[in-house]
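### Sample
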Amino acid sequence: MYDVHEIRKDFPILSRQVNGKPLVYLDNGASAQKPQVVIDAVTRAYAEEYSNVHRGLHYLSNLATEKYEGVRGTIARFLGVADEEQIILNSGTTEGINMVAYGWAMPRMEAGDEIVLSVMEHHANIVPWHFLRERQGVQLKWVDVDSRGALDPQAVIDAIGPKTKLVAITHLSNVLGTVVDVKSIIDGAHAKGVPVLVDGSQAAVHMPLDLDALNPDFYAITGHKLYGPSGSGAIFVHRDRLAEMQPFMGGGDMIREVHKDQVIYNDAPMKFEAGTPGIVQTIGLGVALDYMMGLGMENIAAHEAVLRDYTRKRLDGLNWLSVQGTTDDKAAIFSFTMNGAAHAHDISTILDKKGVAVRAGQHCVGPLMDHMGVAATCRASFGLYNTEDEVDVLIDALELAHDLFG
């Protein structure tokens, strides 16, 4: 049984008040709250078990190394990956995509080569490719979404030309909630000999994954959205791409030997994990993923689907609200603007007075905002602990904002 009210007890912050009102946390798309088991694991790692990893032969170093390295296998199970050596541990999606940009794409792209993107990519999956545009003359090709926020996979495949070297695509839009058919895109791109990078920051939170079946070349996730600590994450890199990728950063741990005139690199994935890592953050991420798998990703997805449908129904009753992203296949993420002069920041401020935490602004998707013709939106993004009662509180707060600004 998925008992959301019992689950909420695992998250201490959900019992607090904000502005004298019970906290309704609907900013999960930006960063999710942490269960007590993660908080305890982080505290214990610092208070009782801390040491550097891979470096020492003493008890604490061995313990920290065992726990840290164990997370690689946990992430592999969570993502549906049989070979855990395809998992590179890092600080999150941003580092992962930059690793691919510098270590894989930059050495093999030249002026006139192309990268295909969708217009709804997060800046983390845009700016690294702009670096290649600025520095090496790489061209960015953009694929639009339709009026409902849906992305046609065939349009992405058709955008691939003889100069295309990479497709970089989100699995789930952080603003529209759109679930992208990345399997069709991957299969179509591979048929043309083009690798695919998938930004899985949002998708990994909301749905079960089987990367061995999906078969991407790169798939990035970030820990703080997965109910784990900030500064944690990973990127899956297919064995074929690992063999092609150069180290992103140099330092300790990613080498076997260093001499005055020679460096011998470590094997993958260690080859791409330079320096002292986020030891405690990564340990906390492993506990967070175990927590999610304990609840069952199918159960989480089913619960959030109920929230999505209920929220859609309630928002549809507000004829003075415009929702961006209305495709049927979407997650429980709702971005909206209020008809009239009210700015998203003003709306979010009123909601905050009622204890409702939402995001306001451009959500790191400048090209999508330009495409939609809006300056900013409010975004309510739901997680595994949210309830229908909280949706009702959101609606009441929106009606108050409309009364004030309408």
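The chain has two domains: 4-30+297-405, 41-293. This sample (Cysteine desulfurase) is used throughout the tutorial notebook.
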